[in-house]
Amino acid sequence: MIPTVIALPPPPTLSVRGSAARFPVRRIYCVGRNFADHAKEMGASVDRGNPVFFMKPGDAVVADGGAVPYPPGTRDLHHEVELVVALGRDADGLVDVATALDLVYGYGVGLDLTRRDLQAAAKAKGLPWDTAKGFDHSAPTSELVPVAEAGDVFARRLWLQVNGELRQQSPLQEMVFSVAEVLHELSKLYALKAGDLVFMGTPAGVAALSPGDRFLAGVDGLVELSGHIA
User: What pLDDT score was predicted for residue 46?
Assistant: First the structure.
């Protein structure tokens, strides 16, 4: 082991269904405007030729749900439920759409938590909105289900309940860009590696979360994630 001048922090990891070993998280890529109804509710349009990407730090994951701290600097924390794709292999340069799914290790569900007031203020000034997305504890994520056990993921429904009320739902078939297309587009910009997560975008119905709120997210017949805002 290479000596370091300060102690190395423990790597962020996620649990894997049916395994005692955990999945180490490298990077978190996120897709914006990947459901047309959500783009519309945010006053944006969908451009099939120009997918929107942003990133969160790998240690933003809150593994397996539980208590999620309400973040500082905001009075308008929003939920965005998303399919999570975990990569188990390095890409060799540009990823071909036809073989892109070979990189996938498994699937989960997660929340892309957003400081909406900071995002709106940045957008109004034409500034980047990294602080609205890439903050501590902003990516609660479920266990991962390996591909071999997942079945036909894309025929399933993505959904989120808050305090027992259904807030968001959509068939995953309504994603504007498929997982294979997203991996292809990301590989034009980044070297995709094993350990990367891709949050695939959210459907309409995003709204505020408050301390004490309890959430239950899921992909029908595949995986669920529960927790609360602390």
Answer: 64
Average pLDDT on 146-169 reads 97
Whether the Cβ atoms of residue 50 and residue 34 lie closer than 8 Å to each other: no
Count of Cβ atoms closer than 10 Å to residue 178 Cβ: 17
Residue pLDDT, tens place only, 52-88: 999 999 999 999 999 999 999 999 999 999 999 999 9
pLDDT above 60: residue 159: yes
Is 42 inside a domain boundary?
A: yes
What is the spatial order of strands in the sheet that 165-171 belongs to?
66-68, 223-229, 214-219, 157-162, 165-171
- What pLDDT was estimated at residue 1? 78
pLDDT value, residue 45? 65
The pLDDT value given to residue 108: 98
Dmax over CA atoms of the chain, in Å, equals: 51
**CA 174 to centroid of chain Cα atoms:** 17
Residues 36-46 have a mean pLDDT of 64
| Dihedral Cα 129, 130, 131, 137, nearest 10 deg | 130
CATH number at residue 137: 3.90.850.10
* C-beta separation of 222 from 153 below 8 A: yes
Residue 8 counted as domain residue: no
**Terminal Cα distance for the chain, rounded:** 37
Cα 64 from Cα 22, distance rounded (Å): 12
Burial of residue 118 (number of CB atoms within 10 Å: 0-12, 13-18, 19+): buried
